[in-house]
Amino acid sequence: MSWARWQRAAAFGLCLCPVVTSCSGVQSTLDPAGKEAESVATLFWVTTVGGLLIWAVVVAISQYAARWKRETISEKAAGQMIFWGGAVFPVVVLTALLAYALWLMPFLRPFASPGEATTRIEVVGHQFWWHVVYHRADGSIVVSANEIRLPVGERVEFSLTSADMIHSFWIPALGGKMDLIPGRINRLSLLAQRTGTYRGQCAEFCGTSHALMAFPAVVMEPVEFEAWLEQRSVSAATDPANAGQAVFFREKCGECHSVAGTEAKGAAGPDLSHVGSRLTLGAGRMENNETNMARFIANPSLIKPGSHMPGYQSLSQEDLSVVAKWLKGLQ
């Protein structure tokens, strides 16, 4: 192979690198960790092969006409080539792909049969965060926000709605997306097949921080999941004499946020009952630690444009530090 061809091959390989690396990761539909995501990935690969087949035939015909078949062909042969290669072949392939997609559709959006879904999770979309409620088999509930936990190997049913505008709930590694529409409840069921932490995302433009409206989706062993729910059903330890808790109530934070076991019963913002145990802050915006907690409290609109939470830049560094420490301690 000549040096020029080696250069072209190397350039082509470099161009493929971003495509290849995007086939895996915590937010890749091509690295499925759930039964529904497997169906989505299968549909993608089948349609890709079908498209490549049509492309290959068209390229072969064009190469034949441009390089190998130099002499003029008859009008009848040209008509047959157009009919069979340009009409019949694409119609047959596309019809087969459509039939396959329609056959696969029930597997993409399965309905959980009565008693099949052991866990029901209610999700309400807000600008720009997620309210999450776990409905347990015994009728009790566990309230959380901006994070989804679900057991591996067990079907989970999501009931989805919105408090303000249309959002879209999507965990690419586990299944397809579903819209959250104000005044309407849409249902989605997922069966996770591999433990791990994946990334969910709002997939419908909903305002300034739409791209920053994400959440971690943690797939756990069923025993660990039940233990996690049990732990979250008990109020985190609070101390009225704690300096951070005093700042929290002094600044009227409880009018927008709820903390179980205290007088904070607000519903305008995320529930903070066990906020210290969550993986991220600001709906997937940044790592959950005391430093980031203080930054977000001081100026949330700088970190998350369009946030409805007011900033507390007037608080001293000491006040920010103690309230962040108290919140991080709500495990």
Describe what this molecule looks like in 3D.
The chain has 331 residues and is of the alpha+beta class. It is built from eight helices and twelve strands. It has helices at residues 3-21, 35-68, 75-108, 222-232, 243-250, 290-298, 300-303, 317-328, and strands at 119-126, 129-135, 141-145, 148-151, 155-162, 167-170, 178-180, 186-191, 196-202, 214-220, 280-281, 286-287. A five-stranded mixed sheet has the order 3-2-1-5-8, with no helix packed on it. The chain has a five-stranded mixed sheet with strand order 4-10-9-6-7, with helices on one face. The chain has a two-stranded antiparallel ribbon with strand order 11-12. Strand 1 and strand 2 (129-135) form a beta hairpin. Helix 6 (290-298) crosses helix 8. The radius of gyration is 26 Å and the shape is elongated. The model has no long low-confidence stretch (mean pLDDT 87).
Can you tag this structure with a few keywords?
5-stranded mixed beta sheet; alpha+beta; 40% helix; 331 residues; elongated
What is the topological layout?
Blueprint: H1 3-21, H2 35-68, H3 75-108, E1 119-126, E2 129-135, E3 141-145, E4 148-151, E5 155-162, E6 167-170, E7 178-180, E8 186-191, E9 196-202, E10 214-220, H4 222-232, H5 243-250, E11 280-281, E12 286-287, H6 290-298, H7 300-303, H8 317-328
Parallel strand pairs: 1-5, 4-10
Antiparallel strand pairs: 1-2, 2-3, 5-8, 6-7, 6-9, 9-10, 11-12
